[in-house]
Structures are given as C-alpha cells and as structure tokens.
Amino acid sequence: MPTTQSATLESSVCFALYSSLQTTLGLYRELLAPWGLTYQQLLVLAIVWERGEVAPGVLADELCLDPSSVSGLLGRMERAGLVRREHDAADRRAVRVTPTERSLDIRAELGHLERCVTDAMQITRADAETLVASLHSLRTTVRAYDARGATAEALASRPIPSAPDTTED
C-alpha cells in the first residue's frame, strides 16, 4: 500500500509533468541515439529546418532557454556538422544559424520519429491537440505568476523564531 507521501506525490500535477517529461526524454534518447542527437538538438534543428535561418536569441526565446545555454548548444552542434553560425552581411554583430547538408540528410531519415512517439504515447491526434493546448495554457499561466511576491509574502507571514537561550544554568 502506498505511503501518504507517495500517494501525494503521485497525485501532484508537477510530479506528473516531471515524470512524464523524464520518460518521454528517455524515449527520445533511445530513438535519436543512432544519429547522435539529443532532444534539445532536435528542437533546435526543427526550428532551423522550418525557417532556413534563425538568430540564436530567437532560438533561446522559443525553446525557453537561457541565451548562454543556446550558445553552448550551437557550438556543439556546429562542431558536429549540424548547423552553421554565420555573421549577417548587413550587421556583422548579428549571427544567423542555418542548417547543414548533414542535418538536412538527418531530417529525411527521422521521418519515423513522430509515429514512434505517437505509438509509444498511445494518443490520438485529437487528444494530442487538447493536451498541447492545455500545456501551452499552463505555461502561460505559470509564467504570469508572481513567484517572488508569493515567496516574500510567505516569508513575511512566518513566525519569527526566538533566539536560542545562551545563558548558562
């Protein structure tokens, strides 16, 4: 019989999201291993393939990543021959990320990926669309939440611990 703590954990929205994400990332790890890709790299490639070229800042925004994380990710991808980073001819400070022939070849080989993930999740297109819409709504709502204010309020309302008695008997 589950303990109260594990029952609470199993009914937690955050744990359900976390454990589902970890399980899904594990599936992607297995599916992408033959190409030496990570899920984050796949996300970058999906955007680059769709647009042809994209600025690193746009990648950071769309993938909800810190710009320095994107820079490191792009460096590894460039060394692996998956993308090119080129300075914009009109503005040498601006960088554009473009796909390489190798990444375009990989794209053609990954046609099975969506079917495999859908099969593993055993989810219909309609259910997937509903889930995605719910998750986007959740993300928007959580982003708008004032966590600092809530934490400050919680800290302000907690009892102030009394100082330990340092007098000797």
From TrEMBL:
- Annotated keywords: DNA-binding, Transcription, Transcription regulation
Q: What is its main location?
A: cytoplasm
Record-level GO BP terms: response to stress
Q: Where in the cell is it found?
A: Cytoplasm
Pfam annotation, one family: MarR
Put simply, this protein is called DNA-binding MarR family transcriptional regulator
Boundaries of every HTH marR-type domain copy? 10-140
The organism's place on the tree of life at top rank: Bacteria
The reply on keyword Nucleotide-binding is: no
- What Gene Ontology cellular component terms go with this record? cytoplasm
InterPro entries xrefs: HTH_MarR-typ, MarR/SlyA-like, Tscrpt_reg_MarR-type_CS, WH-like_DNA-bd_sf, WH_DNA-bd_sf
**SMART domains hit by this protein:** HTH_MARR (SM00347)
Molecular functions (GO terms): DNA binding; DNA-binding transcription factor activity
Query: What is the species of this protein?
Result: Microbacterium thalassium
